[in-house]
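Sat 14:20. Reprocessing the chain from the morning session after the first attempt stalled halfway. Input below, unchanged.
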Amino acid sequence: MSSLTQYLQLYEQNQQMLCSHAPNVLNEAREGACKALRAHGLPTLKTEEYRYFDVQKYLSADYGLNLGRIVSGKDPQKQYRCGVSGLRSALCYVENDVPVMCPKSDELPHGAHVMSLWQAEEQYPSLLCQYYNVVAAQKYDGLAALNTLLAQDGLLVYIEKGVVLENPLQIMNIASARANLMMNRRLLVVMEKDARADIMLCDHAEGTQQHLSTQVSEIYLGEGARLNLYSIEENNAQNTRIHKLSVKQEARSVFVQTDITLSAGRSRQTSEVTLCGEHASAVLNGATVTSDNQVVDNYILVSHDACHCQSQMLYKSVLDGQSIGAFAGKVLVNAGAQKTVSEQTNANLCVSSEAHAYSQPMLEIYADDVKCNHGSTIGKLDEMALFYMKQRGIEEAEARLLLQHAFVNDVLQRIEIEPLRQRISHMVEQRFRGQKDEVCKGCNLCQK
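Finished this time. Tokens:
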């Protein structure tokens, strides 16, 4: 039985229960997703965007679904400690794919709203109808369609015109189950004109069970809005994570995405950003550290649809063991998008002879007054720099660690929140050393 047939049968057998535990706006999107999946299927290794991520293999395990929306009942704030020293954030917890805690109203400024999609359908039904599964469905993606078919709830982050979120919103996605489990998460972010926010999206998995998490995040930035999105992944080797991010930007809006992957089993990040209004700007950064048999695949598409827009990409990977790191970044400049400025860089460091890096930067330009460039490198540690450090009394293991950290440091330095930048830098160092983080001692997630 193919993976697609397995999930379609799962849907047909449990459709009534699935829909009874989900808001109407999610249920109304299922039929279209089902038809699209039957017509176009799931990606294969022959699909250009998925040449290095074997969807059929990773989805073939026998996963269960939490159809009854059952939660552990434990207090997540007591169970997990994922704060950043010196940083006050509004916390939101998602247990598997069930939102179990959202910030209270007094933790957010007036005009900022964070809630489950169930709550949002009661309070903002027209908003959900206007934005849910609109931009994500514009371009067919089989994995996003599968998520739309099976999702039962999600989160809405709605920030009204001119509202500034002074403290970051930290969304904790926790995978925790006693059996192999599939979780399907949704995130909808709507920011009106001149709104400002920082969002930290943290993915963790505990235990030894296999977890499959699919997530679709849709982000709409109104005129002059600004969003800094930080995605931090610390999952175990049994976890498969698939995330589709779709962003639509109006004039003068700014979107900054920073992806940090410190540990993963199999991870696929698809980011599609569309610059619809003049003078919009998108900056996408990423740092990946892999080892063992981990697979991390990043696919980025930035579409310039308006004049005077800018985009930047900087992605770096340090690959060890028999791990695989893949990067494909495409900048599409459509006709009429004059005065576009775009820069794209991908660099990969293979510290093991068995690690593999694949890099594919692309430009597709249909306008004649643009400034666009791209480049990629794949290499080993600088032996001259290593020799230089050893000559000055630095042990080889320490020298290698310092060179690896320096390699990804220019990505880390782009993190605008200083306490978060220091914390991530420390976590990266601990990752290279293969050490557990004492800051999180006692937390069920980090002490794997």
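The longest helix spans residues 3-20.
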